[in-house]
């Protein structure tokens, strides 16, 4: 077996690690807009040498707003996915049901947390930042696909958030401490969610033929393409907001748009596709599936 996860142990760890919303971000707390929010490895704003440091910081903050709002959208389709997965077996393994319901409850808390961040951001930022949506339509589109494909996308995202915190945020000293703390608390609970989603994907893949897995991977890519289109649109909205704040049009807007879209592709797709834990699940499901995703991953670097 490529992992030793189980529902009982994961639930126990999750319950020990739980935090309360007000301990992370109170409804009246303010963000420090004199600081960057996102680490450079994810935002890639310092590389834009046609922007001055102030403009780079503004775009970095817009990128952080994008980051948590998009994860809020993702959590909104994870929640019904979990409930749909739990519902058929309510009389089965009690540890499994309790772990999945707790997983869903924590995702609902994260949605609430991200809404609080958006409200704090909107209070302190000089312009409104448009977001892709509506979230209900995005979720409906994603959830219309094969549950195995959806489960793989969610698993990719869960492991991706682990890498973001451990690899980019934890040791970053130049970002807003409140934003950093928020990401730390999100990481703590997502560590258990990634284990539970691994178990979900294992169950969804059980008994699938190679052709059936192949079709699920086709749908995984279809979901990825849909999300990628959204990331490109969001990059445009982000630049619209930047131009409003700085009071000028960007001469090299197309180049900045392409660079920021690629940064988002790495953040939300590529960094998950290459995560070792995600690749291990793919290998256990189907070496061919793992090879197909490994072949596509460099496009999102």
UniProtKB/TrEMBL annotation:
The positions making up the signal sequence are none
Give GO terms: molecular function aspect only. Answer: oxidoreductase activity
Q: Which InterPro entries match?
A: AurF/CmlI, Ferritin-like_SF, RNR-like
Q: Show the stretches that span the lipid bilayer.
A: none
* Family matches, as SUPFAM superfamilies: Ferritin-like
Would you tell me the protein name for this molecule? Answer: Diiron oxygenase
Its taxonomic placement starts with: Bacteria, Pseudomonadati, Pseudomonadota, Alphaproteobacteria, Sphingomonadales
């Amino acid at each position: 077996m490529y992992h030793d996860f189980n529902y009982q142990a994961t639930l126990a760890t999750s319950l020990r690690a739980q935090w309360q919303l007000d301990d992370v971000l109170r409804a009246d707390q303010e963000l420090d807009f004199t600081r960057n929010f996102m680490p450079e490895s994810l935002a890639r704003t310092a590389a834009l040498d046609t922007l001055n440091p102030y403009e780079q910081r503004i775009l970095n903050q817009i990128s952080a707003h994008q980051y948590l709002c998009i994860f809020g959208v993702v959590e909104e389709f994870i929640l019904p996915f979990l409930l749909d997965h739990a519902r058929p077996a309510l009389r089965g393994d009690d540890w499994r049901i309790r772990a999945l319901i707790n997983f869903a409850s924590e995702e609902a808390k994260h949605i609430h947390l991200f809404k609080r961040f958006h409200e704090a951001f909107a209070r302190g930022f000089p312009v409104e930042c448009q977001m892709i949506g509506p979230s209900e339509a995005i979720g409906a589109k994603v959830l219309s696909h094969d549950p195995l494909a959806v489960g793989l996308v969610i698993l990719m995202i869960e492991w991706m958030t682990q890498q973001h915190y451990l690899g980019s945020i934890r040791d970053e000293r130049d970002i807003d401490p409140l934003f950093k703390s928020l990401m730390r608390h999100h990481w703590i609970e997502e560590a258990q969610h990634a284990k539970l989603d691994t178990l979900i994907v294992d169950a969804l893949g059980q008994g699938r033929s190679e052709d059936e897995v192949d079709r699920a991977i086709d749908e995984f890519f279809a979901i990825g393409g849909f999300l990628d289109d959204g990331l490109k649109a969001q990059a445009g909205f982000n630049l619209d907001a930047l131009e409003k704040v700085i009071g000028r049009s960007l001469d090299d807007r197309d180049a900045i748009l392409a660079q920021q879209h690629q940064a988002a592709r790495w953040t939300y797709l590529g960094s998950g596709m290459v995560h070792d834990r995600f690749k291990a699940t793919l290998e256990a499901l189907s070496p061919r599936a793992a090879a197909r995703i490994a072949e596509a991953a460099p496009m999102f670097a």
